[in-house]
Amino acid sequence: MRTTTQLSVTLPNEMAEAVKSRVASGEYASESEVIRDGLRTLLARDAAMEHWLRTEVVAAYDELEANPTWAITSTQLRQRLAQRQSDRIHQG
Asked: What domain of life does the native source organism fall in (predicted)?
């Protein structure tokens, strides 16, 4: 039984050149290897995002539900972020 499946994909010229360039440089042995590595990276990123959402975001939401007085408006959030950025700029 085969453990691989052959697919045909169409890439924008820039992406196709990036794939070919990595093979030409010797970084990868084949175009398929480049695509597999990219897909593995995407799957790992998606898994990390899912983990973050299920652990940290859900926990933060649960805390906010338990104590709604901690909530701030989007305007307050923007003001705080702008202040942080200003503080960092002035600290050098």
From this structure: Bacteria
Structural domain contains residue 46:
yes
* Closest-CA residue to 20 (of 37, 32, 8, 5): 32
Distance (Å, rounded) from C-alpha 92 to C-alpha 86? 10
SS3 39: helix
Between CA 92 and CA 81 the distance in angstroms is 17
For 25, the domain range is: 13-91
How many domains is the chain partitioned into structurally?
Answer: 1
Tens digit of each residue's pLDDT, the chain (92 residues): 889 999 999 999 999 999 999 999 999 999 999 999 999 999 999 999 999 999 999 999 999 999 998 899 999 999 999 999 999 999 87
CA 84 to chain CA centroid, Å, is 24
